[in-house]
Amino acid sequence: MAGRRALKAVLIDLSGTLHIEDTAVPGAQEALNRLRQASVAVKFVTNTTKESKRNLLERLQNLNFDLQEKEIFTSLSAARSLLEQRQHRPLLLVEDSALEDFTGIDTSEPNAIVIGLAPDHFNYQTLNKAFRMILDGAPLIAIHKARYYKRKDGLALGPGPFVTGLEYATDCKATVVGKPEKTFFTQALSDLGCCPDEAVMIGDDARDDVGGAQNAGMLGILVRTGKYREGDENKISPPPHLTCDSFPDAVEHILKNLL
Amino acid sequence: MAAGGWPDCVQSLKGVILDMCGVLYDSGEGDGVAIPGSVEAVKRLKASNLQLRFCTNETQASREKFVAKLQRLGFDISVCEVFSPAPAAVSVLKHRGLRPHLLVHDGLLPEFDGVDKTNPNCVIIGDAAENFSYQNLNDAFRVLIGLEKPVLFSLGQGRYYKETDGLKLDVGVYMKALEYACDLEAEVIGKPSAAFFNSVLSDMGIQPQEALMIGDDLVNDVGGAQRCGMKGVQVRTGKYRPSDEKHPTVTADGTVDDLARAVDTILNQRGQ
């Protein structure tokens, strides 16, 4: 692509791109190995509000993917780095399984709210507590604003509705840290020492993965696996840099054309 | 004040609508307390040649229970004079052939006793307070998302209110949550909806320009009434804040210290 600098980093979505539930996308492990032999940095990026990096790592290693914990960057990591940067002491409205990603963060006398998907915390009393803190000036940080998600027993409310309700109550705007926010992508790249225009993102979500990355100045490759539905590539403007069948094809394209 | 403004406008009045909480009484422990002079003020209005109705967004108790509380505080008031969102909702349901899933306070349930709630095709939310659990909100969400044309009614749209132990989230917050989750717009029943005010006017059989609303909530009482063509006066009791008097979008036709002063002015102007 004219005017672009040489590719230095590849960001890869996890669920729907490398694996679907407990099954790897065919050829994905092999493709990842080929990519690692090229001179690019690799990072794995995902929106999660309840899975720690350790959990994600275990799942991928069980599927024979070659990766390390420090290569994983999640919406929880993004929330953590925002807290560290601003030296906030958060009230963490996240599920217990996510707490280990906040180990070492001071949560005494909280002066900020971090809100993820946490049905156990979404009762009237806790939301009132969060509401009063926000009125007193505590910033509201949302892991992401998903409307709902699919559970075994049917659809269930995501964190987005609760974030929206608190925004209305307090007349303030939450800071959203997950995909498709621009800062999510720039933070994921920050310790690799590369700029957005030296990076490409591969994912199955046209809006959150590809649109978000391209909006941050990266290239975006959409794969037709996971949550992909026909025509998704037309839902974002500009369209994806490339739409291809699956992760191995995306790697093929990068190795041939972007290096 | 221009001719036709407060208090000149009271010459042509035929009816007065009073907000309740913050105008007649302050809520708190037990029944709360009557605002000084308000019991007498209601009595004087009733003795005048003006019609009188009461209009509240109260949705934590049935109208019967709520009116009984005000009677205990000394007010001369009866159920048929009080307009609240739940009975208005019941009549909307009947009119449109809808069967509700309810997410409301337990105290409000008797209002919906005679309503068919099987196989719901709409959702009604009120100020459910402790009933606003994740599970209950999720149940309401699933009803809505499962409907071909989801219909959500919200009994009021307040952000929060004050109780003795601090500020509490109001129904509007949960209305916004469900709106966002289902990508829809709720229909608000109660103040400040025009349909609600119009039902009070039609009960009195008078035109909007013949009616005056007195309330402590600048946006929902005063602003809502003004948008219907009524006059709106704010009292400096209840949730009144001095900043209301320089609000960017709503300007009351008049601002008075309390209901007693408002009624003094009205009756004096009318020579009664």
Automatic annotation (TrEMBL), chain A:
CDD domains xref list: HAD_PPase
GO molecular function: metal ion binding; phosphatase activity
GO cellular component, one term: cytoplasm
Domain STAS: 1-83
Record's keyword annotation contains Metal-binding: yes
Keywords on record: Magnesium, Metal-binding
One Pfam assignment: Hydrolase_like
Taxonomy, superkingdom: Eukaryota
Signal as UniProt keyword: no
Needed cofactors: Mg(2+)
Family label: Belongs to the HAD-like hydrolase superfamily.
Protein name, per record: Haloacid dehalogenase-like hydrolase domain-containing protein 2
Organism: Sphaeramia orbicularis
TrEMBL record, chain B:
Primary residence: cytoplasm
Keyword Glycoprotein listed: no
UniProt superkingdom: Eukaryota
GO molecular function, a single term: inorganic diphosphate phosphatase activity
Reactions that this protein is recorded to catalyse: diphosphate + H2O = 2 phosphate + H(+)
Cofactor(s) the record lists: Mg(2+)
Lipid metabolism as UniProt keyword: no
Matches recorded under InterPro entries: HAD-like_sf, HAD-SF_hydro_IIA, HAD_sf, LHPP/HDHD2
Location of this chain's protein in the cell: Cytoplasm; Nucleus
Top EC class, one word: hydrolase
Physiological role: Phosphatase that hydrolyzes imidodiphosphate, 3-phosphohistidine and 6-phospholysine. Has broad substrate specificity and can also hydrolyze inorganic diphosphate, but with lower efficiency.
NCBIfam families from the UniProt entry: HAD-SF-IIA-hyp3
Membership in a protein family: Belongs to the HAD-like hydrolase superfamily.
Name assigned to this protein: Phospholysine phosphohistidine inorganic pyrophosphate phosphatase
Organism: Sphaeramia orbicularis (orbiculate cardinalfish)
Encoding gene, per UniProt annotation: lhpp
